[in-house]
Amino acid sequence: MSLLPSLLKNSNEETNQNKTERNVFFENSELDSLARHFVNMQRYRENIIIPKNLGPVAIKTSEEKMVESFFESCFFKSFMACVMGYGLGAAIGLFSSSVNPNIAVPGVPEKQQTAREIFREMRKTTHGYAKNFSVIGLMFAGVECTIESCRGKSDWRNGTYAGGITGGLIGLRAGVKAGILGAAGFAAFSTAIDYYMRQRF
């Protein structure tokens, strides 16, 4: 008969101890539950407590974090810029070759040209534009992502620096002077585009 009160006492102490460990704001369980109600907090796994002011909060799993890090990597950004640059260059090349009235196949008189030869020349021009745009997009996105990772900031300077480096590298093929002019022009163009996009969106 003497064991029953001691067991009840031990169970009450364990319950009080568990309640105290679960408390977040106050030691008093009633005050703590009231504070949780008004703050609207919810306990998640790993002993993480997040306020739900803007709706339900879900903690990302390791797989979701891995996929998100892949999509935010410099490799994926550069690859997408290369693909989009190829598509944009192809569209511009197709348009420019289709409206060019002086398109001609070298070494073939104009009267003897067939539609197949003209289309072959248009495809060559389109592919040239697409290749150039894809290389520019790949270089610009890769340099900008690298600069952003090194600086740890996302502002207008990243695009300006990336534009200067990309324009300089492309212009160096024609000489130092062309590289300097290309760097200055590409940096100014990148700054203007970045400023317009940030103001617009």
Share of residues in helices: over 70%
Low-confidence stretches: 14-21
* SSE sequence, one letter per element: HHEEHHHHH
Counting H and I runs of at least 4 residues, what is the number of helices?
Answer: 7
Biggest sheet character: 2 strands, antiparallel
Beta-strand proportion: under 5%
Gyration radius, rounded: 32 Å
Helical/strand content category: mainly alpha
Average per-residue pLDDT, rounded, comes to 78
Distance between the first and last residues' Cα = 77 Å
The total strand number stands at 2
Shape: elongated
**Order of strands, widest sheet:** 1-2
Structure notes:
- Helices cover 72% and strands 3% of the residues.
- By secondary structure, it is mainly α.
- Helix 4 packs antiparallel against helix 5, helix 5 (115-151) crosses helix 6 and helix 6 runs antiparallel to helix 7 (176-200).
- The relative contact order is 0.06.
Gist of the model:
By secondary structure, this protein is mainly alpha-helical. 72% of the residues lie in helices and 3% in strands. Strands 1-2 form a two-stranded antiparallel sheet.
How are the elements arranged and paired?
Blueprint: H1 3-22, H2 29-39, E1 41-43, E2 49-51, H3 62-71, H4 74-99, H5 115-151, H6 156-171, H7 176-200
Antiparallel strand pairs: 1-2
Helix pairs in contact: 4-5, 5-6, 6-7
Features:
2 strands, two-stranded antiparallel ribbon, mainly alpha, 3% strand, 201 residues
